[in-house]
Amino acid sequence: MEQDxxxxxxxxxxxxxxxxxxxxxxxLEMMIGAILVQNTNWxxxxxxxIKLRPYxxxxxxxxxxxxxxxxxIKPSGFFNIKAKRIKSFIQWWKQYNFSLNxxxxxxxxxxxxxLLNVHGIGRxxxxxxxxxxxxxxxxxxxxxxxxxxxxxxxxxxNSYDQFRLExxxxxxxxxxxxxxxHALLVEHAKQYCRTRPLCDKCPLSSICKKRVEGD
Length: 215
Ligand code: SF4
Prior knowledge:
Blueprint: H1 5-16, H2 27-36, H3 42-52, H4 58-63, H5 66-72, H6 79-94, H7 100-104, H8 108-116, H9 123-132, H10 143-152, H11 160-168, H12 175-191
Helix pairs in contact: 1-12, 2-9, 5-6, 8-9, 10-12
Bound molecules: iron/sulfur cluster.
């Protein structure tokens, strides 16, 4: 099957409409949320963010003791690990005087490399930060994207970056498209392409091979 990412994107967009992600009031809240959501669901992140709200400024987070931070974010799980990661992220950003504009001026791949060097920030976390807080056009390769692309019939590279680059080449530098694409894939994985897929009424049915994992 021809791997028509544009058709996939358009079909999802026509069905679900704009998703207007990420659910956060500020870029900092978005980036902290991206760390908190590692290995948990968004409901737990929301609980942690409510407790953290009085400290959701870069300087305030910098001043906060790691142990105190860990207690505040307890609802998100793995709280000691995540507190260390948030502190490492804040330390990294401090080099730029907590200026979002200075960070945004960095070239995409340079910024990506810097984020990947921060303790506890992997590819998926770095890419959602780049996409939703730092205005860089990247495709996020999460488990939902892998599942949907596979079931549709697209043979994607196993390597995270090769998968990402292959999709990115289709929509060069289209920030709004990548912003919506990731959110639409998440929505679709929740509504239809679940672990047990609901193919009968699925809006992608006509373009999907409905492959079962392991085929
Ligand atoms: S038709 Fe089925 S397998 Fe294909 S995208 Fe829809 S729910 Fe997933």
